[in-house]
From TrEMBL:
Belongs to the MurCDEF family. MurE subfamily. Pathway: Cell wall biogenesis; peptidoglycan biosynthesis. One of its GO terms (molecular function) is magnesium ion binding. Its main location: cytoplasm. It comes from Shimia isoporae. Its EC number is 6.3.2.13. One of its GO terms (biological process) is cell division. Residues 337-461 form the Mur ligase C-terminal domain. Meso-2,6-diaminopimelate binds at residues 387, 411-414, 459, 463. This is UDP-N-acetylmuramoyl-L-alanyl-D-glutamate--2,6-diaminopimelate ligase. The keyword Metal-binding does not apply.
Amino acid sequence: MTAGKKQLSELGLAAAGGANPDILGLAVDSREVREGFLFAALPGTRVHGGEFIQYALRQGAAAVLTDAEGARIAADELAESGAALVVTEDPRMALAYGAALWFGAQPGVMAAVTGTNGKTSVATFLRMIWQELGLEAINLGTTGVEGDFTAPLNHTTPEPITLHRTLSAAAEADIAFGAMEASSHGLAQRRLDGVHLKAAGFTNFTQDHLDYHATFEEYFDAKAGLFDRVLADDGTAVINIDDPRGPDMVLIAKDRGQDIITVGREGADLELLGQRFDATGQDIRFAFRGKTYMARLNLLGGFQAENVLLAAGLAIACGAEPERVFEVLGSLKTVRGRMQLAATRENGAAIFVDYAHTPDAVKTALQAMRPHVMGRLIAIVGAGGDRDAGKRILMGQAAAENADIVFVTDDNPRTEDPASIRAAVMEGAPEATEVGDRAEAILRAVDALQAGDTLLIAGKGHESGQIIGSDVLPFDDAEQASVAVAALDGGIA
Ligand SMILES: CC(=O)N[C@H]1[C@@H](OP(=O)(O)OP(=O)(O)OC[C@H]2O[C@@H](n3ccc(=O)[nH]c3=O)[C@H](O)[C@@H]2O)O[C@H](CO)[C@@H](O)[C@@H]1O[C@H](C)C(=O)N[C@@H](C)C(=O)N[C@H](CCC(=O)O)C(=O)O
Ligand SMILES: Nc1ncnc2c1ncn2[C@@H]1O[C@H](COP(=O)(O)OP(=O)(O)OP(=O)(O)O)[C@@H](O)[C@H]1O
Ligand SMILES: N[C@H](CCC[C@H](N)C(=O)O)C(=O)O
Ligand SMILES: [Mg+2]
């Protein structure tokens, strides 16, 4: 990454002995270091970045940012080189601030949302609300950068260098409003600490990522970091108080003196009073600080109303007029891969794709589908490899308890044995039909659809590949659903 030149001190970094070299670029991976770069040697999950300082120096690093451990590992090489050395307790945080200063601009109004489920949905709805209000806006996260400026991303919350490169490019393209996702990895690794947030949102907290976070509480603390560290004291916290951990987040925000907008079904500032479901969406009745409103949502699933209201709360927190926000809710569109209608059989049976990949999301998505279905609800479910293994049986259970027929199949086995992942899911859904090949599972489930039935294909949502080993084979649930319908009912897929 190169973009001009700045002195080390302009990145908010002070080196031992007062050295203040010109910096020509930033890198967290030694292999990306070039002449004059600052190399951030970060404590990793597998290895300490300090091990790579020697290579970064050989490639011409002008400065190294690390912690005491990194400085110890490379003490000899650092002493021999003329590179400036910045040692700090939290080099990830220093990198986040440094990257923000390096790239400079970011959209003037930024909001972030955290929670186990619903981040992409809320960030996307918030971007759509801003656009409907005539503002230039983006959302940034799992589905890349979308809206008035687009770019692909590999992570839900990219590491700071990618994040600030992206935000500054968006700002240069006149984007004034940005909604981003704050993943728990991103928060734990301080990836977004350099973003100037006006508001932050919390959706919910349930099981996921226990492969990365040692305990449930550690996972919660990572998410709470959005309010107790990243959002400034003068920011606004928008919190779903229906979630059992919502009130804890409110306490954290209160402690910080932040303004708070609560969202929920009872006793909230933005209160969901009622929902009436039909084949294409729902009507909602809600109140904001005492005044009642109605809105049409062309979105399937009761939980989407919660996500929409959280997004509305964030828009208000970022300065929009409440009345105007509520007026545009009817224009919100389905978020790609979330309760998205993918295909319809000749007999009228509908096939939806959804990104449910946690036990709570599988339960929520299936329960949300029920009021829209007259016949049987069929589910396809699978769990990812190299991810939280404890959630597999629970995802199976959630499917078995909330669908009439279940197919268990593969969803990104990665480096694990797919059969053993399926076996764990099957433990929770012993009556399910196991079909390893995902395309075949979709074909068989679509074949089982009779008039009035609905199929929910969970797990991959917008994804365009099946990750097996380190290969990504092209695979798209929505496309496979159309292929299956064409094969069974005739016509062109
Ligand atoms: C598990 C995890 O989050 N890992 C992140 C972490 O890497 P790490 O600690 O595992 O790194 P490591 O392999 O131990 O290496 C330590 C350090 O040495 C450096 N290194 C390594 C090799 C080398 O030759 N030279 C070198 O300098 C690495 O860049 C790293 O900084 O720090 C790196 C630098 O900041 C991140 O790029 C990396 O994200 C990886 C790519 C990743 O895939 N993360 C996923 C799990 C993730 O973040 N997902 C979330 C959650 C999505 C969700 O909500 O479901 C996301 O926001 O996308
Ligand atoms: N408010 C909610 N409560 C419970 N489940 C939800 C909620 N919103 C979405 N879901 C479920 O979670 C799935 C993922 O939604 P979304 O992509 O918005 O979440 P996310 O938090 O961004 O996920 P990721 O951590 O992968 O980025 C949806 O497809 C749906 O099944
Ligand atoms: N961001 C999530 C996405 C999971 C999606 C699912 N398809 C899987 O691969 O488990 C993760 O990496 O855990
Ligand atoms: Mg997401």
